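Hi,

Apologies if this is the wrong queue. I'm a grad student, and the batch job for General secretion pathway protein GspL from Sphingomonas adhaesiva produced an output file that my downstream script rejects. I'm not sure whether the problem is my script or the file. Here is the sequence I used:
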Amino acid sequence: MTAATLLFLPPDESLPWRWWRVEGDAITEGEGVPDAPADPAAAPGEVIAVAPADAVTLHWAALPARSTAQAVAAARVVVSDATAEPAHDLHVAVGAEQDGERAIAVVAPARMRAWLAALAQRGLDPATVVPAPLLLPLPDDGYVRADLAGQGVVRGRTSGWADEARLTELVTAGQPPVTLDRGAVQAAVAAVAAAPALNLRQGAFARRQRRAIDWALMRRLAVLGGLILLATLAIDVVRIMRYSLGADAVEARTATIARQGLPRGANPGDDGAQGAQALADRLARLRGPGQGFTRTAAAAFQIVQAVPDSEVTAIDFAADGTLKLSLSVAGEAQANSVKSQLEGAGFTVESGVFQQANGRLTGDMTVRP
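Support response: The file is valid. Your script probably expects a header line. Output copied below for reference.
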């Protein structure tokens, strides 16, 4: 069953608003703006605003069956020759194709803005604004006329306008329009309420879509977000556990290796400090006191080898970590170079008396850590 409320925009602000409520084959009428029902679910369909016939110019033309934007662009070309104002300064709307042609409605943008503002002041935002002549049925021949909410309207097959005696006689060439009875008007209005032939709310005046929040989708997204957070937390926990187990394994292996380096029967202790001290004592015994024989001798031999015409003739490593070097050098400069380089390597060096023999100097140096 068709149900809608037609709200007629008055041609003049001084005139009252009128409305028709269409429910099936019945039409109820009233003045002003109809009161909204207490239960929104009981509202009789969508509110359709009806633009006065004298404010909208209608044309018909064969337009390409493409997108709405392309059809409107073609319609501007069609109406540009029929209007004194530039077509781009007017609001042009295109209707559905019927018998190979489309209805083209032209209205001043200022009137559209004024109508929508007046409707908004009354708490209305209609999805459809229909020119009044398009409420009448398409005649098979000639013209039809009807009174719509106090406004006389005439429609032909490719025309529609506000009924004025001289204008109507001029357009119809003296052929009187057929006046529709109430039943025919009601049937035509019910058909338009179900499927309007043209909607002025296009382009810049199109109704903004209000997107409802899909709470079921929001709940699913929240659940997915929670699962992602839990998965991320689980990954971090597993990574921490792996690091902890790896650190424990490294520590256990280090303790095993340390025990292997301790003397047989030695106890590393609960905190490992006793074992570390025992390991340090054994290392000192193995390498010798001070920096140890190996490290001290290696540093001394490397320095002597780097000084030309210098050689080690004897070494003696004492129990206190002191290394005694017997050197044979070409001259005093080489002896001083060896001494300075040993001191630069972090050792304390005491040089004995060097004696001349067979063209070379021989003497001893004592190297301490």
